[in-house]
Amino acid sequence: MPDHASIECSLTQAEFDLFALLSGDDNPIHVDPAFAARTRFGRTVAHGLHLCSILRGLAGRLRPGAGLAGQDVRFPAPTYAGEPMRFSAMVTEGGGGNAMTRVAVKAERLTDGTVTCEGFFEMDGAA
């Protein structure tokens, strides 16, 4: 079973808009470029849960069938539409049979290495 997984991609404004539609979180910082241009960020930013969803998918690749028992993540910098990103997950503790597994997760900008989301997921019941 692998102990790490990563993907590189750029999230789009259309994906921000779709996530807002699915989640019901239509805060203009995520979906209104004109509004977001007047904020300290200067442009729209990804929903934190959008980033966590991508990272949860990676963690699921490492422990198929495992449930999410807990998480502790922070967002030290914004993730912008159109910016090349690397999402990664790595098993750091546990993982045998039904034991609890800790998976470290991170999203970072490829252009400058700035971390935009980091933390860990506690996974249980891995198949």
Description:
The chain is an alpha+beta fold. The chain has a single domain (4-124), classed as Thiol Ester Dehydrase, Chain A (Roll), CATH 3.10.129.10. Helix content is 28%, strand content 35%. The protein contains four helices and five strands. It has helices at 13-23, 28-31, 33-37, 48-62, and strands at 4-10, 67-74, 84-94, 101-109, 115-124. It has a five-stranded antiparallel β-sheet, with helices on one face. Strand 3 (84-94) and strand 4 (101-109) form a beta hairpin. The longest helix has 15 residues, at 48-62. The chain is elongated and about 50 Å long. The mean pLDDT is 93.
Characteristic terms for this protein:
127 residues, alpha+beta, Thiol Ester Dehydrase, Chain A, 5-stranded antiparallel β-sheet, 4 helices, elongated
Q: What coarse outline follows from CA principal-axis ratios?
A: elongated
Return the CATH topology: Thiol Ester Dehydrase, Chain A
How many domains is the backbone divided into?
Answer: 1
Largest sheet: 5 strands, antiparallel
**Average pLDDT level:** 93
Helix content: 25-40%
- Strand percent estimate: 35-45%
- What is the class in the CATH system? Alpha Beta
- Please name the fourth-level CATH homologous superfamily: Hotdog Thioesterase
Task: Look at the helices and sheets and give the structural class.
Answer: alpha+beta
Radius of gyration: 15 Å
β-strand number: 5
The N- and C-terminal alpha carbons lie at a distance of 11 Å
Our count of helices gives: 4
